[in-house]
DNA sequence: CTGTTAGCGCCTTCAC
DNA sequence: GTGAAGGCGCTAACAG
């Protein structure tokens, strides 16, 4: 359609030649700064027109080189397989775009080597800021960033090389544990039949959740069962196995189950599916993170949602008044149910 | 740690000055091309060392400007909310990285305006190729790319402005319809009690699936019910509503349900959850796309999975021998069950 | 074996 | 109002 010089992208020189103006004039017009330089409106229009016809498109490489601003905002996430990270990525993209930045989010599969190489790549591309989500040990990445002078924020899992914004896991865990204990009591079951399953023992989020779990019991002056906490790791197969062992040992499932991740929930479902329905239909389940289908499983399910909007907003706020020395830890509250629904509203044509 | 010039990123000039070598030497060493130029190994080591100390990091903006190669590979997706797009993004990232490109994937929420502006941004960043997934009308985006001389491939939904690689929806639909009819027959139900729900009537994927649905019936020389096909759109609420209307009208649910998307499945579950369990427990359900939890709902569920690995591999292959005139349409087969599991294997520390 | 130089495309300052 | 010139960081000739 457009009379493009097929194949080669056009430059401001092409536009200048086509309109008989100088490159400076073209540049000003294309940047919108032409009003300040009292360039004739007619000239401006002619240039704009010609640029469109030539399919001109700023070369951010060149502009970035000159201005030392890339227009890129980076984020690393482990993957997009759960609603939390998917929502985090989505929200990040929206907010980055609304700030005139091009979002670039990369999944690392939680592989530390990939994390480092991705960070280096992003730094090479001269991202103007970097959010690091769900990385077990963000410190090396933080150091790379600060060596490059790039603002860097840890999300979800805190680190000591940069400011962090994470969900208030402890308060959330306490709240959901409270709900589960109440449900247990209402059903005439013992609260110490509640088990916290999944997660990694020495990891921040899990520790906070364990603390919150204990808080809830302490507030009622009761104690959880001595083997109430089982950090079997984050993957589904491990949870399934852990549950199988418990079943073997006690001849039944715990009545109440607090799952440390949606994958632990997956494992739970995989295991219970191998059992006769009446054995598990009565289970009371709570879960950190949520999934649209999980709510319809034949359990009594309570899901805790993280505020992805809040997390991203706080993180961007931190980059605005960025201080390389800052190591603050910002806690963002979690909530039950559909409180943060706006984040994943679906449009008419969606699937 | 490193004796960095805090804040400002170091350049080859810094390294050159620090080592007393010239920028050219530094450049060669840092590119690994130094062996060809017979640079003393000792010099090379000195430079490498110094570069590490200074926290040096190539500026891809400058290199890209010089080489007119950005090292960036772009992909636009609607969102990451289902396993298909999440898997597509993941696989794309892996493959891009293994080709030495930095993957940059952006979600557009299926908003055409966002789609255009994102494409322009990506083109400004001089991506070396662009994959466009799940865009209703990719043609304008294809045109932007070809005007810029950037190889562009449509994924999932075909377009006529570039080559496309899409799932073989028709064959997949036929196969899953076959399975459902067999199950219906095995249970002594009439096959024409099978309903295809969800999707948009004039859209490619839906049309193909309808055709496959009909193929399965024709092969058996039977006909689906006249109102067997209901394209109520892709979102969950619409499916829920459509199902409610049917229930109202017939006083029962169809025994067999083929859902055009995971969101239609969501709507189905939302609706059936409002009914007494015995009314719907017997339902036979099929779905395009899958979800780990959906398999454990109290239905007889069959899920069709798309081969994200295959799709991405084909797309990359197309870019290698890229021909701007090429408009070929490559069909990638789908499969049942966990055939493509490798794509979403989870590691030990995962959630 | 290593240093010098000329741009890649763009933006800004400074003359005209 | 507009044009010429310099330089952002890097690489590929081309000289030493």
Give the DSSP E fraction of chain A (strand runs of 2 or more residues): 5-15%
Q: What percent of residues of chain A adopt helix (DSSP H or I)?
A: 40-55%
Q: What is the multimeric organization of the chains shown?
A: homodimer
Number of strands of chain A: 12
- Provide the succession of SSEs of chain A: HHHHEHEHEHEEHEHEHEHHEEHEE
Radius of gyration of chain A equals 26 Å
Count of individual helical segments of chain A = 13
Mean pLDDT of chain A: 89
Class by SSE composition of chain A: alpha/beta
Described by the principal axes of the CA atoms, the overall outline of chain A is elongated
Strand order of the largest sheet of chain A: 2-1-3-4-5-11
**Largest sheet of chain A, described in full?**
6 strands, parallel
What is the straight-line distance between the termini of chain A?
32 Å
Q: Are there runs of chain A of 5+ residues with pLDDT below 50, and where? A: 1-6, 339-349
